[in-house]
Amino acid sequence: MGQGESASSRSEGHQPTLLPSDWRYTIENLAVERRLITINKDQYRFGHELGSGAFGAVYSARNVPANKQVAIKVVSLVTFSSREAEMLAQSILTEIEMSKRLARASSHVVNMYDFDFHRQSGLAFLVMELGEKDLEKTLKERQRIPAVERKELWRQFVNIAMALHNHKIVHLDIKPQNLVVFPGNRVKLVDLGIAQKAYKHRVGSNGTWLYSAPEVANVPRNHTMLNTSKADVWSWGAVLYRITYLVPPRYVHPSHHPPKNVPPSRDANLVDVLRHTLVLDPRERADPIWLSRHPYTTTSSA
């Protein structure tokens, strides 16, 4: 693929401009697997697809000059109207900026290495560190997570929760698919594409059913809601529920109860966390500081 003209940004550079004012659609479809593609002057050999979403896909790749394995998120803007393309472009810029800030605050946020936009194809490329697999794939392979390991995962979740809270960022789409497992059972958060600033209003639904809070995923189209970190607290509780009971919780009170015919966890502290996170009314839900001080987070594993 020819690079064409690009608008790009190194990871420590200025805020990139994604869509130049004279940019127009060229609608050129491109298969990137096994292709050698230039991204911000470096060549990358693309591997297989790691996962995909509504607006793009993530691939394994190798930075050829550095001989370094990376993950690259590829987002196409060519199938959208001008207004939708601009909104998606802003989402990409938001993801880059917020990822950089959070990665400096927490070692449990994926590092963003580079960014480039190819005007010829209408593709945006976000280069980031490569993990082993996402948490959802790990759970499907292993089924059961031992109690000690589950608590260690939870402590990492709380570390991320506090980084988001301290930077006044609401992720809005925390789920096992957006938690990447690295060697040593280290977990890092990815995909801040729909993240927003806390205490700002948003309109309509967002996120992922059951993992996103009810006030995020189950909102009338034109209804306005205020972003708070309590929305992410539901999501952290939903992920903990998933690694405890193998399925996500439901939006039915009491949401923290285990699935039918499944006994509750024998860990009273874990059950208490679920009781205070999986609360339908955000006003009655715990906040990240409560999570950080809870005995399930602070006490050592048996």
List keywords for this structure.
single chain, 302 residues, alpha+beta, Phosphorylase Kinase, domain 1, Transferase(Phosphotransferase), domain 1, 2 domains, 7-stranded antiparallel sheet, 3-stranded antiparallel sheet, 8 helices, 14 strands, 30% helix, 24% strand, globular, disordered N terminus, kinase
Give a written overview of the molecule:
With 302 residues, the chain is of the alpha+beta class. The chain has 2 domains: 6-129, Phosphorylase Kinase, domain 1, CATH 3.30.200.20; 133-298, Transferase(Phosphotransferase) domain 1 (Transferase(Phosphotransferase), domain 1), CATH 1.10.510.10. It is 30% helix and 24% strand. Strands 1-6-7-5-4-3-2 form a 7-stranded antiparallel β-sheet, with helices on one face. Helix 3 packs antiparallel against helix 5 (230-245) and helix 5 (230-245) packs across helix 6. The longest helix has 24 residues, at 82-105. The relative contact order is 0.11. Residues 1-17 and 19-29 have low confidence and may be disordered. Keywords: ATP-binding, Kinase, Nucleotide-binding, Serine/threonine-protein kinase, Transferase.
Largest sheet data: 7 strands, antiparallel
- Gross morphology is globular
Q: Can you count the helices?
A: 8
Question: Largest sheet, order of strands side by side?
Answer: 1-6-7-5-4-3-2
Number of domains: 2
Share in β-strands: 15-25%
Radius of gyration, in angstroms, nearest whole number: 20 Å
Tell me the CATH architecture of the largest domain.
Orthogonal Bundle
Oligomer: single chain
Helix % is 25-40%
Low-confidence stretches: 1-17, 19-29
Q: Tell me the number of strands.
A: 14
Average pLDDT, to the nearest integer? 87
* Derived structural class: alpha+beta
CATH superfamily caption of the largest domain = Transferase(Phosphotransferase) domain 1
- CATH fold name of the largest domain: Transferase(Phosphotransferase), domain 1
Order of helices and strands: EEEEEHEEEHHEEEEEHEHHHH
Terminus-to-terminus distance: 54 Å
Under CATH at level 1, the class of the largest domain stands as Mainly Alpha
Domain Protein kinase: 44-297
GO molecular function: ATP binding; protein serine/threonine kinase activity
Pfam families: Pkinase
InterPro entries: Atg1-like, Kinase-like_dom_sf, Prot_kinase_dom, Protein_kinase_ATP_BS, Ser/Thr_kinase_AS
